[in-house]
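Pilot study result, target chain (259 residues):
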Amino acid sequence: SPCREERTPSFHVNTRKGVWHDFGTGHGGDIFTLAGELSGSDGFMAQARFIAGVYGGTIPEYAGQKKGNGGVRAEKRKEASRFEEVVRSPLYCNVLLGYLKGRGIPAEIARAECEEVRFRLYGKRYFAVGFRNMSGGYELRTRFMKWCLPPKDISLIRNGSLTCNLFEGFIDFLSWKVLGISRDEDYLVLNSVALLERSFPYLDHYGKIRCYLDNDDTGKRTLADLRKRYGDRIDDCSDLYAGYKDLNEYLGSNFPLEQ
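Predicted structure:
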């Protein structure tokens, strides 16, 4: 359970209904009640800020509420300080490697591209798979949770190629490595399609952009935006995993690792 320390799993999430239940305590609810459990607050706005902080986002200010530059800087410091006692190290935790193995990612590829990040968040200790971005922040993943260690940004690895391979998230990038599609080309991970425009100054320099986006409405809209800007420089590679949500689902369904 993310709400307490335990040795026997007792936390269940129903992703279809968007609810959770902790059988050890009898508590349950939606994402806001979970945020309340983790942050120790029963206020809606405090819960919303917690969710935004975990996912590396922001929430709009109330109409008419203004902040000076000092207030904005203080708020950013507050966001970052929610993650305390952050320790980064090579990825050797068997629990995290087991999570990635369950998604088709072997240890040797995971260790080459990811780190192990341990931290305290709202008074509770966590550890997660970390994928570094260009600003020094991390996308954090476990079997049960997703976080972003601020600042939120894209991830770009340059290998001196004129071709860039584009992914929505780093799990798809790792899947791409497992499938052996990599050709020592450059790659860019958006870490959120909301950061697409932030990628443009880098993508502008490539002669070919191979897109491995999700097979959903968001992925299609993102591809359309890219085609509008780059025209025939865009290569839609989603045919490789047609019938699957994304590249990782294709990998797990067709090339599962032995547990």
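One observation from the pilot: The chain has three domains: 11-81, 83-149, 155-254. A full batch analysis is planned for the follow-on phase.
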